[in-house]
């Protein structure tokens, strides 16, 4: 195993001074030796990329994760997101780090170049996002939801919506969220009561409360675009009666400039055991009956459309577990090489024998290698699933259906197994 880090000369042997490290050798092995990622580069969709380009992108992403994102992680946990005067205030160091993500185009590295994305293969994006999640998961969650919401608008929105929202979301200028849960509607999404009433101008007045909304409010972006499940008058009960709406925090003028606030109120943030830098918000839409939303797709198709965002999010939940496990393993591995305790097992009865690093104790080695075996397996599962997603985009007919069936089977496994073990 080769630990990859931008450590400088003069650091203690066996342990780098940087806050985050990754086994880049295993990442590249899985991408280019185990998986036929280069096969994707022969297709029209990814023909602008060469293997050398992808390796350079990986190195730059890792450098950003280790040198910019990871140093902000401690402050994110200790200071956390704060609710002040009805607004969420993010940890100060997050602002510069988020700006660096935006400047490098990392927010939407796998999304369409037409709207500001890099257009990387999904499998490469999975490797990149492992670095970002492992370095600072709280900050990276904002980017995750933004690109997911932007993708849904790109895929199902009108030309007007695409022009108004997508590029500014893909570049990170605006944020994005997914608003499903309500106080009485958690796993039972069909119990949602948020209302959407159509107006003469074709837009809808949105009213209701949503809870547990990741990055529901933050001060890293100048606007936040919410995707909200709501029920139109006369809609059937259950999930079949839900429609999906694009609801900006601040109204957007026809020329793309910002208008007036859109009557979206942040009621508070949750107090959690961890991820204190990620604001989990309660939002009230239309407390003054002035909250406008755009219908995305057709009425009564809300859950069907939302799954196009939820399924990638499921994979990324698993990726978060794997990324944290990989980062924790690297910390433990480096610490075990410098922590002196006990005598070598071959000299247990020799009281004059020097103390040895704990990595020389067989049971410590067993625990470390067991942990790393799980990390490699989780990484392999996530990358393979991502590769299959790429294949659904570059194939047709029965071959495409076969890869899609793989994705459908593996997606819930990615979420459940990798998040449990990670």
UniProtKB/TrEMBL annotation:
Cofactor dependence: FAD
Alphabetized InterPro entries for the sequence: Acyl-CoA_DH_CS (IPR006089), Acyl-CoA_Oxase/DH_mid-dom (IPR006091), Acyl-CoA_Oxase/DH_mid-dom_sf (IPR046373), AcylCo_DH-like_C (IPR036250), AcylCo_DH/oxidase_C (IPR009075), AcylCoA_DH/ox_N (IPR013786), AcylCoA_DH/ox_N_sf (IPR037069), AcylCoA_DH/oxidase_NM_dom_sf (IPR009100)
Pfam name, any one: Acyl-CoA_dh_M
EC number(s) reported in the record: 1.3.99.41
Domain Acyl-CoA dehydrogenase/oxidase N-terminal, first and last residues per copy: 54-172
Gene3D superfamilies xref list: Acyl-CoA dehydrogenase/oxidase, N-terminal domain, Butyryl-CoA Dehydrogenase, subunit A, domain 2, Butyryl-CoA Dehydrogenase, subunit A, domain 3
Key words, A-Z: FAD, Flavoprotein, Oxidoreductase
One of the record's GO molecular function terms: flavin adenine dinucleotide binding
Domain (Acyl-CoA oxidase/dehydrogenase middle): residue spans on this chain: 178-285
Catalytic activity: 3-(methylsulfanyl)propanoyl-CoA + oxidized [electron-transfer flavoprotein] + H(+) = 3-(methylsulfanyl)acryloyl-CoA + reduced [electron-transfer flavoprotein]
Record keyword Flavoprotein present: yes
Chain ranges of the Acyl-CoA dehydrogenase/oxidase C-terminal domain: 301-418
Superkingdom field: Bacteria
Function: Involved in the assimilation of dimethylsulphoniopropionate (DMSP), an important compound in the fixation of carbon in marine phytoplankton, by mediating the conversion of 3-(methylthio)propanoyl-CoA (MMPA-CoA) to 3-(methylthio)acryloyl-CoA (MTA-CoA).
Matches recorded under PANTHER family: ACYL-COA DEHYDROGENASE, BROAD-SPECIFICITY LINEAR ACYL-COA DEHYDROGENASE FADE5
Family: Belongs to the acyl-CoA dehydrogenase family.
UniProt protein name: 3-methylmercaptopropionyl-CoA dehydrogenase
Organism: Thermoanaerobaculum aquaticum
Taxonomic lineage from the root: Bacteria, Pseudomonadati, Acidobacteriota, Thermoanaerobaculia, Thermoanaerobaculales
């Amino acid at each position: 195993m080769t630990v990859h880090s931008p450590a400088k000369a003069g650091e203690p042997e066996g342990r780098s001074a940087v806050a985050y490290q990754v086994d880049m050798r295993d990442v590249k092995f899985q991408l280019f030796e185990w998986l036929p990622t280069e096969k994707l580069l022969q297709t029209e969709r990814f023909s602008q990329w060469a293997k050398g380009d992808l390796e350079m992108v990986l190195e730059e992403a890792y450098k950003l994760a280790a040198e910019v994102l990871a140093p902000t992680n401690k402050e994110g946990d200790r200071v956390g997101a704060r609710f002040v005067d009805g607004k969420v205030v993010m940890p100060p160091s997050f602002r510069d780090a988020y700006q660096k993500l935006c400047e490098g185009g990392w927010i939407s590295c796998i999304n369409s170049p037409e709207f500001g994305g890099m257009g990387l293969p999904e499998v490469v994006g999975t490797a990149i996002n492992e670095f970002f999640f492992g370095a600072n998961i709280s900050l990276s969650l904002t980017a995750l939801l933004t690109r997911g919401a932007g993708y849904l608008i790109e895929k199902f929105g009108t030309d007007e919506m695409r022009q108004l929202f997508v590029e500014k979301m893909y570049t990170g200028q605006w944020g994005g969220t997914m608003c499903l849960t309500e106080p009485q509607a958690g796993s039972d999404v069909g119990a949602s009561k948020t209302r959407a009433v159509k107006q003469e101008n074709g837009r809808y007045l949105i009213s209701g409360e949503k809870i547990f909304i990741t990055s529901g409010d933050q001060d890293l972006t100048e606007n936040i675009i919410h995707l909200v499940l709501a029920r139109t008058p006369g809609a059937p009960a259950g999930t079949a009666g839900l429609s999906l709406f694009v609801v900006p925090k601040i109204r957007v003028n026809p020329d793309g400039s910002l208008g007036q606030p859109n009557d979206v109120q942040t009621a508070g943030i949750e107090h959690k055991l961890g991820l204190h830098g990620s604001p989990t918000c309660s939002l009230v839409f239309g407390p003054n009956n002035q909250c406008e939303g755009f219908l995305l797709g057709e009425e009564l198709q809300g859950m069907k459309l939302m799954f196009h965002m939820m399924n990638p999010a499921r994979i990324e939940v698993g990726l978060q577990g794997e990324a944290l496990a990989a980062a924790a393993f690297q910390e433990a591995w480096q610490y075990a090489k410098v922590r002196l305790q006990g005598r070598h097992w071959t000299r247990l009865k020799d009281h004059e024998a020097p103390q040895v690093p704990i990595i020389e104790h067989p049971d410590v080695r067993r625990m470390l290698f067991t942990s790393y075996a799980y990390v490699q397996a989780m990484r392999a599962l996530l990358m393979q699933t991502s590769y299959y997603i790429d294949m659904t985009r570059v194939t047709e007919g029965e071959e495409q259906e076969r890869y899609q069936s793989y994705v459908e089977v593996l997606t819930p496994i990615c979420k459940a197994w990798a998040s449990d073990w990670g």
